[in-house]
Every structure is written in C-alpha cells, then in structure tokens.
User: What shape does this take?
Amino acid sequence: MTTIIAEPTDNAQPTVGHPVSAIAETVEAITGRIRVEVPTLAAKMTPAQLHSVIAESVSKLLAAQLPGCPTWCVTKHDDDVLGDPGWHEGPKVEALAPIPFADAHTDDGASIVLAARVVQVNQDSRIFGVTTEVWVDVDTETLELNVEQTGQLIGRLEDFLPKLRAVRDQLAAASVGDYPEDEVAVAKWRAQSAEEVRLRRVELGELPAEAQR
Assistant: This one.
C-alpha cells in the first residue's frame, strides 16, 4: 500500500512512502532474531519470563512512530482501539470553563467548552485518499473543518469575545442587587412541598396504608 503523506509546511509537497513494507522488514528482522535467540533464552528463563521479554519487545516496536507517521502525530499506534496506522491525531488544545456545566456533577471539575486537534485519516489512501482536518469538540458534538472553515471559526470566535465582554459588563450592573437565599426558609418550603405531595398521593391511593400516617 502506498501512502501519501502531506507534512504541514508552507512549501512541502506530498511525498510517497511505503510504511507497510518498512514495518514488514522490521518485523521480519525481529522474528529472525527471535528464532536464533529463543533457544538460548529458553534455557535461561521460565516460559513466563520468555513470553514477557518477547511481548515487551513487540510492544516497543508497535509503540515506536510508524514509518510515514507525521511528526506532529501523538497517537499511540500500539493501542488496540486507536492504534490504526492510518489514523493520526495531533496534540489537543482546550478552552476550559471556570466551573462545570449546569447539568454536570460538581466534582467533575471545569468543563471543556472547546477542544481542537488535527486529525488525519490515511487508510488505503489509493482508494479513499488522505483527509486532514481540524476536529473541534463542542461538548458532545464535533466539527470537522478544513483550513478555510477553521479560519472562519476563528474569526467568529474573535467577533464573539467583545460581545461576551459586553454581556459580562451588563451582568455586573444587573447583579448589583442580588442576595443569597434564606436557607431556613428554603428548607421549610421544601418540607411543606414534600408534605403536600404526600397528602396528594394519599388522596389518589398511591401510597400504602403504613405510609399514609
């Protein structure tokens, strides 16, 4: 399989690499060495120790940056789920909220308002081509943007910031008269509401006799 790799530089032209053949050669070299050395190692180690040594060596091979992997890629290619050699992700940048979302658990910490990273899909490129985009996560939704669209989003965010500052200033003026709740009054209101609900359920026959007292 021939893979076209576009490096993100101003004057770079796509180059042609052969990652599959290069990996095959490396695997064959390691396999040949294992064939030679396993009898010697087996005489010195238990089967479990020998298995551990081989597994560690293979893991290091898979964890290494694959031939043709972009220099900006941070994907762990030995991962069972995300280790596809045709899938590349750059470092993620995030904009955090000062508090969790309103429907989030208070122990979850600051919520991520925006997150973005470069994603390249380069699987069977002679059939499907190569697609490189900026993926922007907005809560549970994702925007998949090209360069022009990313620029448009940046421009709209820059336009939004002065408006957000104006809303903040409006909040500062509007919230001058705010004051906290009366905790005692709130507790009394909740108890009264709960009792009203209980009595209503009694009237409707929704509660067993022991719960009607």
In short: The chain has five helices and seven strands. The CA atoms of residues 72 and 90 lie 6 Å apart. Residues 147-174 form the longest helix (28 residues).
